[in-house]
Amino acid sequence: MNAPTLWTRAHLDALAARSCPTAPVIAAGEVVPVAAGIGVWDAWPVQTLDGAIHRTKDGFELWLALATPLFDDPDQRHDHARIHLFRRRGDEWQHAGPAMPDGFSPGSREWSGSAVIDAAGREVTLFFTAAGRRGEAATSFEQRLFAAEVSLIDDDGAPVLTGWRDLREVVERDPAFYMQTIDPAGTIGKIKGFRDPAFFRDPADGAAYLLFTGSDATARSDYNGVIGIARAKGAAWQILPPIITANHVNNELERPHVIHHAGLYYLFWVTQRHVFDPEGPTGPTGLYGMVSDDLFGNWQPLNGSGLVFANPDQAPAQAYSWFVFPDLSVTSFVDNWGGGDGRRFGGTFAPFLHLHLEGPRASLREGAMTRDVMTGNAMTGSVGR
């Protein structure tokens, strides 16, 4: 197995030589709650084994997203996060409440993951991050990777997930490669990672993998983010060494995921300006990625630097948690939108974007942003793609 590919300061130096590609500004009319009284952020749909968004015979998509009630301080949401279920059909969104029943998850909170449905379209596997431990006296940043099974059934014309079962820890941390995450003094942006499992089936041989956010146990720098990987081995998962490391560059390579496009592997992750090493060149908050003809080596940063696109200068934190699908559409959520002074947390789905990929070059397609046109009552809305 190859050594991890390095994402280096030299790659980031390429950003200084050219203007950064940026997403369009999100307008006020596009920041419309997807459900009454809650804010949502990291989101993912139920996907088929090849990564496409699954649609039921009645045209529904099922989406999962981290959600909480709205807080005066939006950062408090991380201490209360649960995975909620949403249905989408055409222009309508429906909020179905928490995905898993109370007391089922082993964590004090639930953080990001992914979900995949079997070939028959009946059984869903949810991979997710259990943050902390249920019943802990003080909120911790411990992170563990879990999976659970659930059945997809039709309930009076609407798809529902029912019969949650087989909860299990699927990937256990290998201390030779990945740091532990128990740090009572940690703060958001500085904590270490073992989270964000994302499913990928390699079309070359049908092998299944989980990508995840980690921290390098061998690093001397506090800025030691890595992208980890595990391979399915029968009913178990075998943890492997990281495939990307950002030592001395960046602390968090979040929500890593892979798509296969035009015969190449494209690996994407998201990160924020404030988690770059301040002693080196820093990049903007944005979507980053690499390309390779081999899942385990020869990764080359897209556009020379790794940056696919950033938030616009006038709203440098307007969106986050971008996730790319095989059709090259990109979802995200509205974060601190509008620029200017103060914090305006959108807490809803952002307009979809669309990429163009050609070898090591990545760009936003012309007219890449599809506007949200939310309609209906407080529990429904619409978004085009």
UniProtKB/TrEMBL annotation:
It comes from the Bacteria. One of its GO terms (molecular function) is hydrolase activity. Pfam families: Glyco_hydro_68. Keywords: Hydrolase. Gene3D superfamilies: Glycosyl hydrolase domain, family 43. Belongs to the glycosyl hydrolase 68 family. This is Glycoside hydrolase family 68 protein. The lineage of its organism: Bacteria, Pseudomonadati, Pseudomonadota, Alphaproteobacteria, Sphingomonadales.
